[in-house]
Amino acid sequence: VLPMVSITLFLPLLGALLVMTLRKAPAQVVHAIGIVTSGLTLVGALWMWSRGVNETGFAQLEELDWMPAIGAAYRVGVDGISLPLVLLSALLFFVSFIYSAKVRERPHAYVVLMLLLETAAIGTFTALDAILFYVFFEVSLVSMYFMIAGWGHEDRQRAALMFFIYTLLGLPLLLAILGLYLGSEPHTFDMRVWIDNPPLEGTAAMLALVAMLFTFAVKTPVFPFHTWLPAAHVQAPAAGSVILAGVMLKFGTYGLVRFALQMTPDAFREAGIVVLVFGVIAALYGAFAALAQTDLKRLIALTSVNHMGYVIVGIAIAALALDPEVRAIALDGSVLQMVSHGLVTGALFFLVGMLQDRAHTREMDQFGGLLKVVPVLGWSFVLAAFASLGLPGLAHFPAEFQIFLATLRVEPVAVIVILGIVITAGLYLRAIGKVFLGEPREQWTGMSDLNTREILALAPLLILIIVVGIAPALVLDTIHKTTAMLQF
Amino acid sequence: MAADLALLIPEIIVLLTIVFALVAEMLRLPRIALGVTLLGLLLATGMTLPLLGVDTSIFGGTYRIDTLSTWAKLILLPATVLSILLARAELGGSDREGTVYVLVTLVTLGSLVLASAGDTMLLVLGILLSGLGSFALVAYPRDDAATEAAMKFFVFASVTGAVMIFGLSYWFGGSGSTLLSDLARLETKPVVAAVGLIAVIVGLGYKASLVPFHFWAPDAYEGAPVSIAAYMSVVPKIGAILALAQVVRDLPMSTDWPLVIAAVSVLTMTYGYLAALVQSNVVRLLAYSSVAQAGYFLLGIVAVGASPLAFESIIVFAAAYAAMNLGAFAVVMATGRTLDTFSDIGRKKVAMGVAMVIFLLSLAGIPPLAGFVGKFLLFGASIDAGFTWLTVVAILNSVLSLAVYLRIVVPMYRPRDDDAPPVPAPAPMPWVRLVWVIALIFTLGIGLAAQAMLGQLN
What we know:
The structure holds two protein chains of two kinds.
Chain A: H1 4-21, H2 27-51, E1 59-67, E2 72-78, H3 82-99, H4 107-126, H5 130-151, H6 156-168, H7 171-183, H8 191-196, H9 202-219, H10 228-235, H11 238-263, H12 265-291, H13 296-320, H14 324-359, H15 370-373, H16 375-388, H17 396-410, H18 419-436, H19 452-470, H20 473-483
Antiparallel strand pairs in A: 1-2
Chain B: H1 2-7, H2 9-26, H3 30-48, E1 56-58, E2 63-65, H4 67-91, H5 97-115, H6 120-138, H7 144-175, H8 190-207, H9 216-223, H10 226-248, H11 257-276, H12 282-302, H13 309-335, H14 345-348, H15 350-364, H16 370-384, H17 388-412, H18 430-448, H19 450-457
Antiparallel strand pairs in B: 1-2
Helix pairs in contact in B: 2-3, 2-5, 3-4, 3-5, 4-5, 4-10, 4-13, 4-18, 5-6, 5-10, 6-7, 6-10, 7-8, 7-9, 8-10, 9-12, 10-12, 10-13, 11-12, 11-17, 12-13, 12-16, 12-17, 13-15, 13-16, 13-18, 15-17, 15-18, 16-17, 16-18
């Protein structure tokens, strides 16, 4: 049997090494290597998807001794929570490579960093060893730092630094990992052991939970730890933004489920209300803050805070729920929301990037009537924006619906979070109105519509937004296999 | 006695190397001196391998051949080889070039004695042996800065050395023996034990540049040739840290020594990084960084006797630290001493730039590099020993350290201002490149193959 997880995981790294050896190759060749490698990685992820997950725990396990002296090993595998995220990451990287085939500034380094980032992202989702997880988690951060510093916009040095320092606050996670390690008997870094028998209890578990919450809250990001996000997004190149929002924000919520919820379940249940409150505040704050923006990219970045807030709410509800059925619904919704957010926000960031390439501005007030000038770009934006505000039939609806449903059953008060939907609806309609409706301004009449490369990058995301919206069961079946069996 | 000497072969080879190299230098044959030194050091490294797994002491318990001392040889001897290559690139062709190799090897011998000390008198011997050579090395350029640095260094060393010897006399009085293994007799005399402990911390702390005994280090590093600064930040420091480990493993717990060490550790890490944050001279910055790194070593020291991870973590981090610090200094040698010279160097010299980033990230403890594995084990050891708060402080300092190291990384990838005076592209230095390539291999390799080391340690 082919070790598909490891192959998928290390393919991008091999591609990166290949690019490094071809120092003299022209830009087109380098980009072609990037596209082919990430395409093969996507095939690998689809292969993993076809093998599926099982109802008993982790599937597709692959193990190799690494440091047996301290109980660390190379252990990878997937379950219904991580597999959709792996597929999402592989897809987003693939379309990002297509989109960035235009990059002419140091293409070698760009492709190497992106491929490194891809291995780190897939590794974060598939790692079943805490050290391995932490390694991938940090490598992703370092690569993203250099990506923003090297290819970002105006104030990129500051943004990159902020992103790095903020995320370095992820070190509390390391502390929690050490605590879990020393609490397990015999000492091991095997995450499956920690999940099956949570090693800590009482105060120690609560301290570990607080450390983990801190790390994952910064990463997700949750208000008031979100200030790095708009800065990093606005300065990052478009493909960087797509990866940042589509893939890397999920590290926070994925970690919240995998570590906080599964390894310190009792402490999480006690602290569930606090987490819930933070989730509600994040969702509402993100929506209100986005409402105040005039820069399109900032606006989309802040709606991410709103959408990830729903994920937090869903996870908190899952911790608080006593009925396993409700818990499964909440977690189903949360995981699906992560996938939907990746697709929708990915598409939106691409579209803003495409707009900026043409107009060299992202200020909403400068545009108007673009729907008539660039209809493909315009209608794509409308579709993605409608998906983002949670229109039924598009990707976010089934996810948010399940989260709200579970919330109603457990903490009805928290349903005020639904207000966020109303606000996002308002702000997206306003943005569409300002940018795309009305009479076209003279200065933009010469604007060209999307070219083939851009359509190729965008189409898979838009199609999947509709597919997931109409037939969420395609993803939910996999997710539910795991969420239905989780016992805390 | 003969059996004892057989266990001492590496040290004997190093000593003979010094003698032969000195003879070659007196005959004005610096190249021969260089060759003899490198060969001798590599031979001594090779002859250390059979000692892996040996755990004994010789000469009536005064000299230890154990995990710490054997790994000290395996780390410090190759580190000395790399330092000598750097020195050759920097000082080659100067008058009395061969004496540099002789003195460097002498200091290494002193450091090995420190790491193997089983007796307080050997501690003193090791401190003196490594100290005397160091003063001369710092003063080697014979300009004002170097002379002043060496003078400061000498005065500091004399005072701390005197304090240490004075304090050690209390231990001798209390236990009736100079053997470290007899320190257990001080169980009922906590005051005597404490006085001696403080004296040892002063004496070894100066050598390892622990705060508040670090004041000589930045000045000495700045005044000395860069290769000598690189050397002193690695070899004598690791020797002193291992000596501290040898002392505390025999010290009775009644003195609460782990708490004292933990306090020094907090001071060292925090002060080192805070001071590094405001430096504009890269050598001084790395000097303060190496002060702070010494504080991390102490996380392993506090766990000695309480956690099985203690020795493992100290040794792994020592190897990691030697590789990444020598690598960073090598790049500084090839680039320049001020932050300005680093502007845009990442684009002009791509490979060297990437290597420097990796060294600095490793120093900051970013996985999967060597520095991460070392620090991770140190954190594990100190938590295991009940010093969770110390680990928290260390982790917070890691955040601070990132800001420090980014001060070098950020300009490396920033285009130069157009009106800034042009900086001549650094001349290629093949020996220096060899050093940072080797250091890079180890910095990456220790991160991925830590098991090979851990397996040998168990």
